[in-house]
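Q: My labmate handed me this sequence with no annotations at all. I'd like to see what the chain might look like in three dimensions before we decide whether it's worth expressing. Could you predict it?
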Amino acid sequence: MFTFSYHRPASVDDALALAAAEDEAKYLAGGQTLLPTLKQRLASPSDLVDLGDIAEMSGIRVEEDRVVVGAMTPHADVAASAAVRAAIPALADLAGRIGDPAVRNRGTIGGSVANNDPSADYPAACLGLGATILTTVREIPAEAFFQGLFETALAPAEMITAVSFPVPLRAAYEKFPNPASRYAMAGVLVAVTPAGVRVAVTGASQAGVFRWTEAEAALDAAFAPEALVGLALPAEDMIADIHGSGAYRAHLAGVMARRAVARLLG
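A: Here is what I predict for the chain of 266 residues:
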């Protein structure tokens, strides 16, 4: 690792002040992505601002027709939450399939969303459910938040404080995990909302998470796995690496979408 200064503030205001004082400061949430990046010397922040002691950033609450998850809430807490399971079972199911037990107990929703890894699970939940990302300065719809590979709408020093999910009529998430990392090689969240069907795909595209609008239109017309037969994502836009070609990931996305619909139909 490169040399850096370590801080562990006890409040959001203290964290913001520390981050604003240094041009190259980074927030540390669960550290499941940042720490390996530091070990590989791929990042060299001047300061790490550890958010682990800020109690107000953790926890889950249900507000009328929304579930609000604090940014420092571990994946394991979301997966185990009776409130989440009652309101949005698909969100609890998704959280319970992230990584392994060590990752689920250390990783946080805020860290995952802020990193916007193209193979992460939570971006599919945010975009598929139409979530709002709450920060220290504003509220950002998921549609505007995710802006490409590892890119988000966050400004320097801006911090995610919570993620607010509207409760859908029903939703399901299916993914094909890499057998080693458990990252999604293709993950699809299908949500039925009062405004129509939403389909979000993660793990497949070179541009990161996206809504599959053609699948949404097909499912709005006929909500059945068969409605998606014949639809194909462009292979040239998908990730191609040692784990699978673009065509393979495009195929997986279609399979996961059909499985999610089938699961919702019971």
